[in-house]
Specification:
The protein is of the alpha+beta class. It has seven helices and 27 strands.
Amino acid sequence: MELLFGDLHNHCGITYGYGALHHALDNAAAHLDFAAITGHAMWPDMPPRNDETAFVIDFHEAGFAKLREHWDEVRAQVAARNGQGLITLQSYEMHSSRYGDHHLLSPDDHVQLIYRDSPAELVRDCGAEAIAIPHHVGYVPGYRGISWADFDESISPFVEVHSKHGNAMRADGPFAYYHDMGPRDPRNTVQEGLRQGKRFSFAGSTDHHAGFPGAYGDGLTAVWADGRTRGDLWRALRLGRLYALTGDKMICHLTVNDVPMGAQATGTRRTIACRIQGEARIARVMLYKNGELIDVQAPLPAQRPLQRAKLRLEMGWGNDEAPFRWEGSLHVKDGQLLNVHPYYRGRSVLSPTQHNISSADDVNKLDNRLTYNGQQAQFITETLRNVSTLHPLTNQYVFDVAGDENTQVTLTINGVTKQARLRDIVRCGWGDQVKPWHSQAWLMHTAVTALEFTFEHTWQDDKPQRDAD
């Protein structure tokens, strides 16, 4: 099986939003395996226009018209990019006060842009194989949050549970909703949907509005697929072989009685097996059943000889509006570089404002590149100043290194070279400034060992609570 990472719901200047479509596709290809660039298409039950709602109604209508006028061009550009270092899907979005917002996904480059009153009608009439995925589900019912009463797993095999809007897993969970659309309503959490017996898998997407799919920290989807083609991805999505991520590209194997994610297992005695590999120390693993917490594991790493560690290099900071360019390399001696994961961000936009709704094509025209082999990685990346102390725009690379205490790591970044033994980076990281004041900076985080970033456990459950737990 192949584990693919991507973003199935994000926006750019093809409707209301920012950034050219080709830049969005370039940004996706730099750090993702798949992406769907979503156009805003319709809002069948939009509120009536008056003095108070005029701005909202008008910018939505203008965005919908823009997509209609350019749909053939958008569809062709997305189709042309498929297989060119990126798997693409066609996509557009329906706003709905009644059903909650959904984005339609299709592997068919001839999918029609049509207008209907419900997600089910869109899927039925679009002239192609398609699914409709609910997103930012946690908003108030009737105010573009999900309607669990109308949820249909036959057209929605998974639900977007995390994005820039926040996290809808549970009412008391992290990443609360603070967008101007309102709070996270306990009636519309994932936990509540599971309590009602709904069946679906979980996805994460950014809902970014400035042409940067997969922006780090805003949401990501991991998919277990049979291969790396569009057909492989689509089959896995339909089967629900996926899970949501808020940030790092974590590897998660989860089975129930040896049945994989997305499938249904039978029996009153369940063996639940879980294996996780993260990019940082795993603090805890929580097991839920029917939306209720039933176990918490807090792994404590044992003292063992150093054999493998993950090194996280973070770059950015500063106070300049213009992008700052970083060029560097990391070389491993007497060890092996197993893998490198890039984590990129661009200028962050969740939705247009009344003061700025124009389509700035180059808003996220950024140069992010990575190549690596078993001994060395080379990178170029461009970073932006942080929005605030709580909203970073730094970029990161996580280097997976096999070696022992004496493995030597050489980091060169913008002409500065630093050497250290692997044991020393595990003990303590280090950083540096580019200039004396309000400067761009970089940080080599303290490395984490394999015992810290891996987890494996098996649970036994012999207490069924209902026909389908």
